[in-house]
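Tokens for ATPase inhibitor. Go.
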Amino acid sequence: MATRFALSRLCITRSMDSTRGATRYFSDGKGRVLSEEERAAENVYIQKKERERLEKLKQKAEKEKAEKEKESAEKKTEGSHKD
């Protein structure tokens, strides 16, 4: 009788947890399970790294654009000195 009561209580508790938004778990690809908090922290880290990567690409593109403009300005200057 006690076992039946414990089993039914366990089922009720699990069903209540699922309706209250109990912690869900995700795999990290290594067989380990991540909690929602760990998953959120991982997502924040990934987004931060992605922003940093995009910022570096943006700075590189701006630098290349400035160098091209400088070269074209020098060519125009050289062309006007030849006259």
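The two ends are 107 Å apart (CA to CA).
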